[in-house]
Amino acid sequence: MDFNLILIRVQMLRRSPLSLHLSLSPLLSLSLCLSLLSLSLSVVEAANATTFNCHINYTNQTQVLVPSFDSRLYMLCFLPAFILLVFTPNLKFLAPLSLVANLMMTASLVLIYFYSLTNITYPINLPKVGRAKDYPLFFGTAIFAFEGIGVVLPLENKMQRPHTFTLVLYLGMGIVTFLYISLGTIEYMCFGDDIGGSITLNLPNCWTYQTVKLLYCFGIFITFALQFYVPAEILIPPAVARVPPRWETAVDLTLRTVLVIFTCALAVLIPELDLVISLVGSVSSSFLALIFPPLLQILTFHTEDLSPLVTVKNAIISVVGLVGFLAGTYIAIEQIIARNALKHEETLSPFMVQ
């Protein structure tokens, strides 16, 4: 088990401290200690298999280094830590940690760019056009990456100077767009069809790039609470309002715990990061970003002389989103089923009588 698999499991769990309620039960504290102990063993295990040789890796050799227990158990090891993290009730407590996480991920990106740029092969043999069935998966992944309405609006509401939000939004999206396009292009030129669902799968098993994976682990872990803030603000207050005041804290913490356990269960049941991202993007992000907003504008302003050009534009955007939703959802589910069936066959094959 190596840092790379730990990173992938944190990414699967992701998609949600001064206020951590120190009155945690001894059972939860014991669970957290066991979690940290298990992860410490993973770090020691990975360290024993890590070298100082950072040669290029075309075979995803960092996926499996030494024998270990089921990777789904590592997901469960992270569960108590995530539960503690989401007990943070306000975004202002997450701001310093989020800044540290962003700095760490920026340092990791610099190292990944350096490795990829120094190991690009002659790209003449790469295909000029991708496979047609991969385009729906690309649609889901791209819309997932750029659709941030769930986080954008709460951040604007919590800003001290909301009038500067437009500048911040355009600047942030410009930087993110550049990083997505440049890094994706460079990595494909470097690894070709051998590129993994996460670029960390292709990094060599040496101390420099193991550090990259650890930095990403921390960054993704911290920002989970930021992603979690939006569904918590939507689902928890109505439930808390229905109970007596003395039960409000208990109900709030219980619901937060249940939501995190639910995301952990999904990560355990569908451990395919790239396909899960595409599926979520096709199903939810396409509705939030492409289908619903144009339709809502038409329904809201149709009595206020909405121009035909705007109506046609909105209709086209909604149709594109609907087509992407249908195609992306179908292909993603089909690929998830196919991969699980293949893994099931590989698991049973040693026990089959020849």
UniProtKB/TrEMBL annotation:
Taxonomy, superkingdom: Eukaryota
InterPro entries assigned: AA_transpt_TM
Signal sequence interval, chain numbering: 1-46
GO cellular component: vacuolar membrane
Subcellular location: Membrane
Topological type in the membrane: Multi-pass membrane protein
Record-annotated membrane-spanning stretches: 70-87, 94-115, 135-155, 167-186, 213-232, 253-270, 276-299, 311-333
Domain Amino acid transporter transmembrane: residue ranges: 28-333
Keyword set, alphabetical order: Membrane, Signal, Transmembrane, Transmembrane helix
Record-given protein name: Solute carrier family 36 member 1
